[in-house]
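Final paragraph of the annual report: two paired records, presented back to back.
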Amino acid sequence: MPGDPIPALLPRNGGHQFLLYGNSCSGVPGALHEKTFASVNAVVRRLNPQPEFILFPGDEIIGLSPDSTLLRAQWRYWFETEMAWLDRAATPGTRRATTPLTIR
């Protein structure tokens, strides 16, 4: 069944349970990668228990533009729509510190 919990892999002797995402290249409404990323997120939401934290080493958004307004819009859409399901207080995440833009 699509909504059934998926047992998460847990550390045997201490350690941390985490999730590593990579290269979603999303952030654009209606684009091909949005559907793929939504499918991955649907599986992640079913993990039981949820990860303690999430690592996202890069390519969260597609980028491909020198236009800072367009890039900010992609980041905003990625955070506010595509990752809106994530309870950031319960499951913190990381992203590249080299991203030159901030969402305002």
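The closing record of the year follows.
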Amino acid sequence: MQSFGSSANPHELKSLKTLVTCKARDSDGGDHTEVVVGVEKAEAARKVKIGFYFATCWFLNVIFNIYNKKVLNAFPFPWLTSTLSLAAGSLIMLVSW
């Protein structure tokens, strides 16, 4: 048995990256059933999900900056506005947690 991180056959590593084989047996002791799952699709879905999170964060940041600029033009007290925003956000997170 090789330890984690030891040098292994590159062909084995490639096959581990592309496919995961699961073997299962029925409760009555029948033959094995093999299920082959592609890991590449899961990786692609994970990358799309992370990209969606970054895009959403960027979009909400743009909206927040525009709204903040409008508020500071109408109410020119940035320290008070920031303190109230921090207090409201902290209260919302405390209730959500």
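The chain has a mean pLDDT of 79. This concludes the annual technical report; the extension proposal builds directly on these records.
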